[in-house]
Amino acid sequence: MCTSLALPEHALYGRNLDLDTHFGEQVLLAPRGLAFTFRHLPPLPRHYAMVGMGNAVQNTPLFAEAANEKGLYMAGLYFPASAQYFDAPVPGARFVAPYELIPLVLGQCATVAEARALLQTVRLAAEPFAPGWPLAPLHWQVAGPDGVLVAEPRADGLRLYDDDTGVLTNEPPYPFHRTNLAQYRGVGPATPPNTVAPGVELDVFGQGLGGLGLPGGASPTARFVRAAYLRAHAVFDGERPAQVVQFFHMLDAVAMVRGSVRTAEGRWDKTIYSCCFDAQTRTYYYKTYDGGTLHAVRLDAEPDGDALRAYPPAQDAAFVWQN
């Protein structure tokens, strides 16, 4: 389970990653000179630098999400019932394993338009990173200053959708989420008028009736609606640090609290980390579930190297004492 948010008008992009266990995640900075290799394509000896969270195996970054130096962001989210990959190469198409897609796109594309053109040529291979590794069923949100799109692997290839909501969660496929929003078209931030019984005096019994009718659960559809609502109404005033903090408040509103969502295996889902990429300053911010404090990694730090750099996420809570 995950939620991804894209706000091109504020140059802020990020996501919650919700799991019942850690996956060896670290903040990964892939400089321009770190060679990317692919199973079925020529290598990229040089590419745009990128930063994000993922697992590093044999000097290979397995990004859950990342953003590059041009401000293009891409996140993979769990898509277990609908993701379909190909067992064999398709003539004329780029045959790419799912874990290779983020490096392939962010390594070469500076805009969503460029990413769209590349993704139209891609077919995803049913190949995990290594024998014994899971083959992650995913779909992706891609965002930059020129827009947002969703890429979903289906039987006929990658289906690409313009994402005018700026939101992606999980199942069902994106068109369902987009249609489902129509059920909530009357929800707004102001106290609603009395239309249920206009002839009856109904006193307002407190502030906060704006947003009345929003779903409150942790399902993908509920998170999508709440995130789309906040995406449309959140106010981004003040200095840049306050805007970054506001982005994290939006993610908090769709985060999973440990103990609130139990998996079929009897484990607890939680938002193991939340992140935000500031494309203005090319800074990757994150906080972990147990830490809570915002940490930052600058993409501009040595972007021309050739070695993958990994930063273990801070998991311990930090408090600022005032007495």
Descriptive notes:
With 323 residues, the protein is of the alpha+beta class. It has a single domain, classed as 4-Layer Sandwich (Penicillin V Acylase, Chain A). 15% of the residues lie in helices and 29% in strands. The chain is built from 5 helices and 16 strands. Strand 5 and strand 6 form a beta hairpin. The longest helix is centred in the last third of the chain and has 14 residues. It is globular, with a radius of gyration of 20 Å.
Could you tell me the radius of gyration in angstroms?
20 Å
> Please, how many domains?
1
Can you identify the CATH superfamily? Penicillin V Acylase, Chain A
Distance between the termini: 40 Å
Task: Give the structural class.
Answer: alpha+beta
Shape: globular
Give a quick account of the main beta sheet: strands, pairing sense, barrel closure: 8 strands, antiparallel
| Largest sheet strand order | 11-10-9-6-5-4-3-16
List the helices and strands and how they pair.
Layout: E1 2-7, E2 12-19, E3 26-30, E4 50-57, E5 60-68, E6 73-78, E7 94-96, H1 101-108, H2 112-119, E8 122-124, E9 138-144, E10 147-154, E11 157-162, E12 167-168, H3 174-180, H4 220-233, H5 240-252, E13 270-278, E14 283-288, E15 295-298, E16 309-311
Describe the structure using short key phrases:
Penicillin V Acylase, Chain A, 6-stranded antiparallel sheet, 8-stranded antiparallel sheet, alpha+beta, 5 helices, 323 residues
